[in-house]
């Protein structure tokens, strides 16, 4: 059995895989080794280097493990047509992303951006107008592993959490839950709106300018899912008109964000370069999921973790 990686884990991680699975032949090669892919049984990738044309020659490929959560750049239709199993690393982002989201919220609530500006200007000004997180309401769009972890931490700070998902089905660490169709009903109650939604046909441009009109003028909007949940010109309009107080953006419709984009210089926007999930433990956790699944695979079990519904894309 041949397992092809299109990225390089650390040397000790490679060694551990080879020692734990002596029945497998591991190939670690970056960029994607197209020749090795032709005879590979399993591909482990970050999901951005595999194209439909590759699958035409990958006759032996049976399983693709994506060492990330996003799948929007994957040739899902072609993978489905070949009946190739697709899994991802869903769940490994929840700790670093929840910490990043909390850091940004507390930074704004405690006026740290203004404090930093005053320091650069050599200005001693205690008039910072900080607010408290305690007693506020957070609306969390996307109630999977990341959303639930964000909800858990916010609840510990005394925040009321409203979850929002496609079905309106209850999720952990949410005080209440609504469906996508009920968004406008709860937006006026939210002090913080956090999108952690993936990019799917159902979520693309889900949020509109009308949604921002429903929000409090003091609301903070945070996008840590995918940039196409809203058209950027509509968000830009809402920020320019101060329909909301702040936006914290880790993802964008087109990345990297163009250096001339207005977001860079707006006083009520924080630009994060799609870095909220970065962590020294990222690959460690991804390989833990892969190793557990590989054990199941070798035991001819179909109980793999994080199998993707190729029709839905998640």
Automatic annotation (TrEMBL):
Organism whose genome encodes this protein: Psychrobacillus lasiicapitis
Ranges in coiled-coil conformation: none
UniProt record similarity statement: Belongs to the D-isomer specific 2-hydroxyacid dehydrogenase family.
InterPro entries with a match to the protein in the record: D-isomer_2_OHA_DH_cat_dom, D-isomer_DH_NAD-bd, NAD(P)-bd_dom_sf
Gene Ontology MF terms: NAD binding; oxidoreductase activity, acting on the CH-OH group of donors, NAD or NADP as acceptor
Residue intervals of the D-isomer specific 2-hydroxyacid dehydrogenase catalytic domain: 18-301
Pfam families: 2-Hacid_dh, 2-Hacid_dh_C
Name of the molecule in the record: D-2-hydroxyacid dehydrogenase
């Amino acid at each position: 059995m041949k397992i092809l990686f299109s990225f390089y884990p650390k040397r000790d991680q490679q060694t551990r895989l080879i020692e734990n699975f002596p029945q497998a032949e591991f190939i670690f090669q970056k960029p994607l080794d197209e020749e090795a892919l032709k005879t590979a049984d399993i591909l482990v990738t970050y999901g951005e280097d595999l194209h439909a044309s590759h699958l035409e020659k990958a006759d032996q490929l049976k399983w693709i493990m994506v060492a990330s959560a996003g799948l929007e750049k994957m040739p899902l239709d072609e993978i489905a047509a070949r009946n190739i199993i697709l899994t991802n690393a869903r769940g490994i982002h929840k700790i670093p992303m929840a910490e990043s989201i909390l850091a940004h919220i507390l930074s704004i609530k405690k006026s740290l951006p203004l404090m930093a500006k005053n320091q650069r200007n050599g200005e001693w000004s205690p008039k910072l107008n900080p607010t408290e997180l305690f007693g506020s309401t957070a609306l969390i769009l996307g109630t999977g592993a990341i959303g639930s972890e964000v909800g858990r931490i916010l609840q510990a700070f005394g925040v009321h959490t409203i979850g929002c998902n496609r079905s309106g089905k209850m999720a952990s660490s949410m005080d209440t839950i609504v469906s996508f169709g009920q968004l406008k009903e709860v937006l006026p109650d939210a002090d913080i709106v956090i999108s952690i939604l993936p990019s799917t046909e159902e979520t693309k441009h889900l949020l509109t300018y009308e949604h921002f009109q429903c929000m409090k003028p003091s609301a903070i909007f945070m996008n840590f899912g995918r940039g196409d949940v809203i058209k950027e010109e509509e968000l830009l309009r809402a920020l320019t008109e101060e329909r909301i107080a702040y936006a914290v953006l880790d993802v964008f419709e087109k990345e990297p964000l163009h250096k001339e984009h207005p977001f860079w210089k707006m006083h009520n926007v924080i630009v994060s370069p799609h870095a909220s999930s970065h962590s020294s433990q990222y690959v460690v956790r991804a390989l833990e999921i892969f190793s557990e699944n590989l054990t199941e695979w070798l035991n001819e079990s179909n109980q793999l973790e994080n199998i993707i519904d190729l029709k839905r894309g998640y």
